[in-house]
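User: For documentation purposes, I need each entry recorded in a consistent format: the amino acid sequence on its own, followed directly by the corresponding structure tokens. There are two entries in this batch. Please keep commentary to a minimum and don't merge the entries.

Assistant: Recorded as requested. Entry 1:
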Amino acid sequence: MSYSTVQIRNVALAGHPGAGKTTLFEALLHAGGAIQAAGTIERGSTVSDFDPIEKERGHSIDAAIASTDHAGIHVNLIDTPGYPDFRGPALGALAAVETVAIVVDADTGIAHGTRRMMEYARNRGLCRVIVVNKIDHGAHQLGQLLEALRSEFGTEVLPLNLPADGGRRVVDCFGRKAGDSDLGPVAGWHQKIIDQVVEVNETVMDHFLDVGEDGLSGTELHDAFEQCMREAHLVPVCFVSARCGTGVKELMGIAETLFPHPGEANPPPFLKGAGADAEPIQATPDPDAHVIADVFRIVNDPFVGKLGIFRVYQGTVKKDAQLFVDDGKKPIKVAHLFKLKGKDHVEVACAIPGDIAAVAKVEDLHFDAVL
């Protein structure tokens, strides 16, 4: 295991059908070096849409998982289907992540799937990021779309970067005070997002008023930014063209520096016992504690049989370890432990808190089982 819990970022791509989630999934894997070339839906060569029916229809029907390493972080990505008929896998996948990236088509704008996933993610206490895709098309008004997003979802929706040169590049408006973009000067948006970030933390706000922005440390800004996302006080917007690659590396950089790791996000509720006697317990990302993991997906794989995909919240799941399913009295053995890359399974020795892994050939596993 070459990474720790604080280096993990768990991100689900969600949103309306056709927004470009699968294409962005490919672009992020390529930017992180997990694949040599990004596949395309048209050729049926994507990592996530590997099912023959998905290739035939040209859209996802189930959630797909893959991971990549980038600049010192390990990113677990989940590509979710957008069509309402297949929303179950999308909603189930959100249980495994800290951050939901809601992908919006720059051509068509806000749609029903956008609203549903924004609402669902907020109700679950997840950090939300809006990713405006297809900024290279040129036939749309990105400024009007940004204002529509702010009108629909609140003034906490603020851009981290802005398109420039007709959508051929993006400019940072969080770390930079000056510059020009297709939406006008960077300075105004920079001031808005800085004000939004510092006001959530009283200590940072007092320090900001005393010494100004230049006097704040990177740690202060990061902690305040993460708190804003956790408390839904900020919904950042990033601009990309997944097909052309514009803004994709910048999005990976934002994930590294600003997205929460598993120890920073709102912890999910767990209960010990059943019925009226059930008691809430809190999982902590301690690798040495006893294991708490949630099975959020079950797959019947033609090669390895029944595959239970789970997110580790506490402890370390090791190959050949024995675990209990729910309140079961008989332990199961983790004979084969995998990381997933679409249809491929990579056997690993362990899974630490925050990681997403899978165990094969355990018949007692079911959706939402707690290990």
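Entry 2:
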Amino acid sequence: MTKKELKPIIDKYMKKWITNLKLAEFDYTIEFKTLKGDYAQVATDEETRHITIEFNPRLLKTEQEIEYALEHNIRCFNVESIPELERINTVAERMDKVAPISIRVNPDVDAQTHPYISTGLKENKFGIAIENARDVYLTTQGLSNLNVIGVDCHIGSQLTSVSPFVDALNRVLALIDQLAVDGITIHHLDIGGGLGIQYNDEKPPTPAEYAAALAPSLAGRNLEILLEPGRAIAGNAGILVTKVEFIKPTEEKHFAIVDAAMNDLLRPALYQSWQAIQSVEKNTAIEKANYDIVGPICETGDFLGKDRQLAIVPGDLLAIRSAGAYGFTMSSNYNSRPRVAEIMVDGEFVHVVRQRETIESLFAGEQVLQA
């Protein structure tokens, strides 16, 4: 796809799939997008770290967050409802500012992915139904402290086919054409993310195939195109390393109890997702057996993989593949477990980009009630 076919593309890195700012230390300014859909142009300095930490990734936009965003000249609010529009307009008016906005539309397209990460159907909580979007855009014309600059659409995550992307894009472009007739000019189109990766036997489209499928619909349009290729960039670039603590054979199952758990990697428990698991070093001295790889948390749902053929003994290290996206960022301190360290490998160099948490750090903010 040439620049002529598709106007400059800006990658929007979503804080929900990875949160470590070390991964964004490039020689140019980069833009982060939070799950709640707000853009802020930032650079990787101390001020940036403060800003990106302040914008918590969630759908809710509090008045305090809106004020903070406007104070720092946020690029764009992605708006999901009329009450959000009204709140942003009210705060902007109070601050004597004009808030740039883009409306997230829900095109009612089946992303053909796990229902928990499908976001573009009418039944999902995200965005404004596309058949109602025109009226909402017209409503903005009566709100003097809003400046409409874009349209946003994201139909889901881990898509393995280009057809839902194309279907959603064409529906959104039809809306943009109708808005032009109404005298509303759209400057940018955020077509979201969702391009999948191979965890097991999936065959997702390559970035080139994805681009080739979208290019015909976008050719000749004077739109800035925004993309969110998070998982496709980082997913297969990371692993979770865990140690086998015990081998526990039972009448029904063989369990390998490891020191990692569902709090470290939630996807298998939450989505019943499959991620490859392999020994860091091959053990040729023993035969393979069938294991469930489980953690020490007191829930049956605490597993990282089931029915895996492995030749392992206590003390062996296992690598859980495809943990570069939605790994650490979904981790928690459940069961009072400190979160793991994050290590970046750059050729022959190894960097600790996030220190391992300690038990003491978990309790640092707590206070005992005074008598």
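Summary note for entry 2:
Confidence is low (pLDDT under 50) at residues 1-17, 25-59.
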